Amino acid sequence: MLGSLSRLQVLALKKNNLTGNIPSSLGNLSSLVELHISLNNLVGSISASIGKLNNLTTLDLDSNKLSGVIPPSIFNLSSLTELDLGTNNLEGELPSDLGNSLPHLQYFSVAANRFTGHIPTSISNSSSLTVLQLSLNNLHGQVPPLNKLVNLTLFRIAQNFLGSDHLRDLIFFTSLANATGLQVFNIIQNNFKGVFPKIFCNFSSLNVVAMDNNFLTGEIPYCIEKLSDLQKFGVGNNILSGVIPPGIGKLQKLTDLYLYGNQLSGVIPPSIGNLTKLSILTLYNNHLVGQIPSTLGNCGSLIALALTNNSLSGCIPPQLFSLSSLSIALDLSGNHLTRSLPEEVGQLKNLDELDLSRNMLSGQIPSSLGSCTSLEYLYMGRNYFNGTIPDSLDLKGLVELDLSNNNLSGRIPQFLQRLKLQSLDLSYNNLESEVPVDGVFNNASGVYVRGNNKLCGGIPELKLPQCSYSINNQKRRLKHQKKVFTVAILSGIPPKHPTLIFGAFSLDYLHNHCGASIVHCDLKPSNIFLDDEMVAHVGDFGLTKFLSKGINDDSNSNQSSSIGVREYGVGNEVSTSGDVYSFGILLLEMITGNKPTDDMFKGGLTLHGFVREDLAGDVVEILDHVLVEGIDSTDSNFLLEALTSMLEIALSCSTEVPAERLENIVSAKLSSIKNKFLGTRLQQRRRI
């Protein structure tokens, strides 16, 4: 039926999900002038019958799944002005007389196919051409002279095998000298050799120059500053030398600048800061020196900046971090940057990737990094960062984190096992204590901790030594042969948090059953240890005090900055009541997951007050979530009741007035809670 429409002049069926072959009956549409069937799913070969449409000026078959060779009859349609066969699976060679048989052609595209052979020399005879697209094929050899294409505005021959390994490969560009309206010149990823042609500066209409991934030599000409309409300039992965022209800052319309992978030297011109529309700047893999210009902070549209693998030195200018537009990547790795990482880094709230690795940065990792809430990839390895891993790195979106080869110390933070990390590299630092086992730590191929000689535990595949919880030899001077007492732990509490009930029995023993009362003075989470049987021990008696009639040993009168500081800092004497206070705060900390020093406890609010005010409401809201994760409904009510009772004991122990604190009965009350909890659970299980 379609073939009977002999008077039809325009047939437009683009973007309709059409399938099957092109019907040969189209050849009967003798009046057809325009045929548009692009963006469909047509298969098979191009029907040779289309070659009978002598009035056809436009043939658009772009973006289908057509295969085979172009029928020779198509090239007999001398009236064609537009021929678009791009993005198919067509093959073969372009006919040598193409330009002679299609003299009126204005738009010609066979991009993204499988064509082989050379670009026909006759192409220049299609002198009306404005668009010539031959990219993404298997064309080879030299590009013929194009001197007759004076109307050319868009020239794309990227991703072929063009070029003859000759220094005169770019001579064809000289033949375009009369194409003064040329706007797009794209020869990316070919085999072109030769010196960067200065004639570029004569094409004042150019807005896209893309010459990446070739073998171009010479220097970027200073006259490039004349191309005032230039928006994208790419010469990455060539062999260009010399400096970046200082006048490049005059290209006010520039949005993309790709100079990576060359042999450029000298400094980064401060004038680049004038490019307020610049969105992508890649200068990596060159020989650039000097400091990163602070003027880059004026490039308010920048979304990606890559300065990797140069010889840049000095500090990172804080102005760089004012670029809230940075969202894709900031890569400063592989340079000689020094000093600390500015706190202003926290302003990069939209950044996806930050790479500062392989520099000489020092100081502590700024806590302000925690404000970079969009970060997925953070690489800070091979620097001189020291201190501990800050809690602020608890960034929920992190996928990869590299802190390797630094001078970091302390424990591995527990929050790292809660993140959805796929790769974590903490190797070659000074980290110590037990390696977590959940999250990324349960994947030996995703976590790297070697080179930390004080680490222990972790999953067996990491091949770390078992953790030893031996206690300080100083305790051996005490009267009793056993210095630390094992503490029963609430059975059924998730193993993620096994230390909810611990030192009460030990403190009771030290306070009341050692002759002279022994005051620990430094009870805190880091002084609670678990052995292989998950039994808790109280350790580190470095601040221990003996209290007895006529005995007051002041040899350890200096208090450390721990939980007990507030108790002793307000002028209270060292006493067993101070240990009770510390124990109460410790219970609150372990059950709620909050620390007394957290930022939320400001303006008079304390951990004690926070729990006291909220305990009457929904107790679940103040519990550490890891305590209730994975608890089934059978246990949940009993667990909440037990934890509520323990919070009440903790509040009684940590009240401000020493006389109102629980003393000798703490361990008894905890035992009562434990026995009730276990008994109730056992009865419930029997009913089930």
State the helicity in percent bands.
10-25%
What is the correct CATH architecture of one domain?
Orthogonal Bundle
**CATH C-level category of one domain:** Mainly Alpha
The CATH superfamily of one domain is known as: Transferase(Phosphotransferase) domain 1
How far the N terminus sits from the C terminus, by CA atoms, comes to 75 Å
* Rg for CA atoms: 37 Å
What is the 3D form? elongated
For the sheet with most strands, the description reads: 19 strands, parallel
User: Which parts are unreliable, with pLDDT below 50 for 5 consecutive residues or more?
Assistant: 470-520, 540-565
Strands, count: 42
Count of DSSP-assigned helices: 9
Looking at CATH, which topology of one domain would you report? Transferase(Phosphotransferase), domain 1
* Beta-strand content: 15-25%
Summing up helix and strand content along with how strands pair, one would put the structural category as: alpha/beta
Mean pLDDT: 83
GO molecular function: ATP binding; protein serine/threonine kinase activity
Catalytic activity: L-seryl-[protein] + ATP = O-phospho-L-seryl-[protein] + ADP + H(+); L-threonyl-[protein] + ATP = O-phospho-L-threonyl-[protein] + ADP + H(+)
InterPro entries: Kinase-like_dom_sf, Leu-rich_rpt, Leu-rich_rpt_typical-subtyp, LRR_dom_sf, Prot_kinase_dom, Ser/Thr_kinase_AS, Ser_Thr_Kinases_DiverseReg
Enzyme class: transferase
